[in-house]
Design goal:
The protein is of the alpha/beta class. It folds into 2 domains: 69-81 and 345-444, Aspartate Aminotransferase, domain 1, CATH 3.90.1150; 83-340, Type I PLP-dependent aspartate aminotransferase-like (Major domain) (Aspartate Aminotransferase, domain 2). The chain is built from 13 helices and 15 strands. Helix 6 runs parallel beside helix 11.
Length: 446
């Protein structure tokens, strides 16, 4: 990190240059109640080495999936990342490269984009994928904007529960277009098919489903898709990329647009980001697709060459024709996902999905044997499941830290979600870890 010292005289000159008299005048738009009051309470002056030791000690207090056994999920998962992924993305030609969105990017970057798109299409079964977006939440928002651009309709139906963070980002980004969202949710958090049939009509732009949903539950995706298409609405599926190792691809239930969070594909949890957005669709909609698409061709000498086939951001084409102002493709994490998928292969991703499934069901079966615990949703699930607990989930979560566990997510923090303890299990969890966790939960038994 660069260190830029500014003496008081320098600060005065900068303030004068921008036309204000003080720092307080500069930040007057920031509400008083969120401004820092008083000093930063920094320690006395330290040498560089002393600062290093101090920061190292502070960082050691972090509670992470490396220090505790992690049963947290809800969109970001503690999955195994092969060491080759980090090794490759740390190469200077990738790590320090200029943000790869310009037309003159190298053949190596273009080939990575092309390979990434191809693998995403293989996993999802969709016709075309772009070279990634910011994260799963913004990818969903872009899917809504694309649906609106396609049919000019403004009403969207959400079939069941979707990730609360995806929901907030979607509604925020789409607010400028005055798009409206209606949630069709049964008492168990899944889609109410009868209500969906009555709600969808010719004014519906798209029906959105998350499969598996935030509780890990599998939705009736074939029936939901039929309901959407019967009213000429598009069908948008939010998927878990790892689950596609064993679940049907979105193309099998006729999804028009597929989006996903790419974090499970070789990207660390990193306290919540940055992550990777995945976006794929049928070829019918490619002209309204956000982002960019890399393609393959031959040069004047007949040699294979990679090109940016489609670029739709407003900096590169006429603004009125732009379908997205996305300025980056999370190039480094797109590369990480490409390396991960190539190393794991079809069989590797299938095994990761199967282990997650079997281990989640093993843990769930043992938890519900404890008095006072039960599954909140009695439907098939993948690697997340919601548990009703004999005490408040927050009590369990806070106490679990002392025993070396990140016990899950207290869904009561999200008003739109069912209350309970959301537990996630990945391929990294061992039988010993899960058995120890069950023994810990017994201390709260009724």
């Amino acid at each position: 990190m660069a260190f830029v010292p500014n003496i008081e005289e320098d600060r005065k000159k900068m303030l004068q240059t921008i036309g204000v008299n003080s720092i307080n005048e500069l930040i007057k738009v920031i509400p008083e109640n969120v401004r820092l009051k008083g000093d930063l309470n920094l320690p006395e002056k330290l040498s560089e080495y002393e600062v290093y030791r101090y920061i190292l000690e502070l960082s050691s207090r972090n509670i992470t999936a490396s220090t505790h056994v992690c049963f947290m999920g809800g969109g970001a998962y503690d999955r195994f990342i092969p060491s080759i992924v980090q090794s490759i993305i740390e190469r200077p030609e990738f790590r320090t490269a200029y943000t790869p969105y310009q037309a003159e990017v190298s053949q190596g970057t273009l080939q990575t984009m092309y390979e990434f798109q191809s693998m995403i299409c293989n996993l999802t079964g969709m016709d075309v994928a772009n070279a990634s977006l910011y994260d799963g939440a913004s990818a969903l928002a872009e899917a809504c904007l694309m649906s609106h651009a396609h049919n000019r309709k403004t009403h969207f139906l959400i079939a069941g529960t979707i990730n609360p963070f995806f929901k907030r980002v979607m509604e925020t980004i789409c607010s400028g277009r005055e798009l409206t969202f209606e949630y069709i949710i049964a008492s168990d958090g899944t889609c109410d098919l009868e209500k969906l049939k009555n709600a969808v009509n010719e004014q519906t732009s798209a029906v959105i489903v998350q499969h598996p949903n935030p509780y890990g539950t599998l939705e009736e995706v074939h029936k939901i898709g039929q309901i959407a298409h019967n009213s000429n609405a598009l069908y948008i599926a939010i998927v878990d990329m790892i689950s596609l190792g064993i679940l049907e691809a979105p193309s099998e239930y006729d999804a028009d647009i597929t989006v996903a969070e790419g974090q499970p594909l070789g990207i660390p949890m990193s306290f919540g980001g940055p992550y990777l957005g995945i976006f794929a669709c049928k070829k019918d909609f490619v002209r309204k697709m956000p982002g960019r698409i890399a393609g393959i061709t031959v040069d004047a000498d007949g040699n294979r060459a990679y090109v940016l086939t489609l670029q739709t951001r407003e900096q590169q084409i006429k603004r009125e024709k732009a379908t997205s102002n996305i300025c980056t493709n999370q190039g480094l994490f797109m590369l990480a996902a490409t390396v991960y998928m190539s190393i794991m292969g079809k069989n590797g991703i299938k095994e990761v999905a199967e282990q997650s499934l079997y281990k989640a069901h093993y843990l769930a079966d043992n938890i519900i044997k404890i008095p006072g615990y039960r599954l909140s949703i009695q439907k098939p699930f993948f690697c997340d499941f919601l548990v009703e607990t004999p005490v408040e989930p927050s009590i369990i979560i806070n106490d679990a830290i002392n025993y070396g566990f990140l016990a899950g997510i207290d869904t009561s923090k999200f008003p739109e979600c069912k209350k309970g303890l959301l537990i996630s299990v990945t391929e990294k969890r061992t039988k010993e870890e899960m058995d120890n966790f069950v023994n810990f939960l017994k201390k709260f038994a009724e």
